[in-house]
């Protein structure tokens, strides 16, 4: 059975992540071609699952790609993601 489009109650598990990606990534970017259209959500999903802090997890990412360590220095490195649309931060050695 097909779900009707734009009906949040019909498929709430899919509407939430699709809406988040749409608001935070694709609505703020000019999509150039089909390859770019496929690459943007993939890169955003990788950032969301591996680097972005989540409040329910005490500001830890759900599946970190690096071990989480306590910052021992005050210097932080910023890395732009999706052309500067969002950023990733990590502590650096002084």
From TrEMBL:
Superkingdom, taxonomy of origin: Bacteria
InterPro entries: Integrase_cat-core (IPR001584), RNaseH-like_sf (IPR012337)
Region span, Disordered: 47-94
Residue ranges occupied by any Integrase catalytic domain in the UniProt entry: 3-62
Protein name from the UniProt record: Integrase core domain-containing protein
Highest classification ranks of the organism: Bacteria, Bacillati, Actinomycetota, Actinomycetes, Pseudonocardiales
